[in-house]
């Protein structure tokens, strides 16, 4: 039993306050599944934005992705199969930096598509 004593008074069952970092960094099976599902969903969104931009005639700035765009099989392999293998092998908390980077890339893509659409 966690009991703290302050002077003559006893405060029973005080629990430490959980921070958001504790929620993100400590293991939980359900949270791992959520992180992995969000990461794969972000990969799908990035794939959809890439295909939309390519269909509108915009060029891909990433040289690696530019070579992959010519083959749908390679595109699915790079954007879905490889990330699925990565999230299967890694624990959820190690996917967080990749999610942050992917969120920045998706934000950049949306900003560029909007700026190009408004310029027309």
Task: Give a brief outline of the structure.
By secondary structure, this protein is mainly α.
Structure characterization notes:
By secondary structure, this protein is mainly α. It is built from five helices and two strands, in the order E-E-H-H-H-H-H. Helices cover 68% and strands 7% of the residues. Strands 1-2 form a two-stranded antiparallel sheet. The mean pLDDT is 81. The protein has one domain. The radius of gyration is 22 Å and the shape is globular.
What keyword list fits this structure?
single chain; 120 residues; mainly alpha; two-stranded antiparallel ribbon; 5 helices; 2 strands; globular
Layout of helices and strands:
Elements: E1 3-6, E2 9-12, H1 20-25, H2 29-55, H3 63-68, H4 72-89, H5 96-119
Antiparallel strand pairs: 1-2
Helix pairs in contact: 2-4, 2-5
Q: Measured on Cα atoms, how large is the radius of gyration?
A: 22 Å
What composes the largest sheet?
2 strands, antiparallel
> Would you tell me the structural class of the helices and strands?
mainly alpha
Kindly report how far apart the N and C termini lie: 67 Å
What's the order of the H and E elements? EEHHHHH
Q: Percentage of helical residues? A: 55-70%
- Could you state the oligomeric state of the chains shown? single chain
Round the mean pLDDT to the nearest integer and report it.
81
Number of strands: 2
How many domains comprise the coordinates?
1
Q: Pick out the low-confidence regions.
A: none
């Amino acid at each position: 039993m966690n009991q703290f004593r302050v002077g003559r008074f006893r405060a029973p069952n005080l629990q430490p306050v959980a921070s958001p970092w504790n929620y993100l960094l400590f293991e939980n099976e359900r949270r791992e599944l959520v992180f992995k599902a969000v990461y794969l969903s972000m990969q799908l969104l990035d794939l959809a934005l890439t295909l939309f931009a390519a269909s509108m005639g915009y060029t891909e700035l990433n040289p690696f992705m530019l070579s992959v765009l010519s083959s749908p099989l390679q595109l699915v392999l790079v954007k879905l199969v490889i990330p699925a293998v990565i999230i299967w092998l890694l624990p959820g908390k190690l996917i967080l930096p990749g999610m942050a980077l992917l969120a920045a890339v998706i934000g950049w893509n949306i900003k560029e598509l909007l700026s190009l659409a408004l310029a027309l």
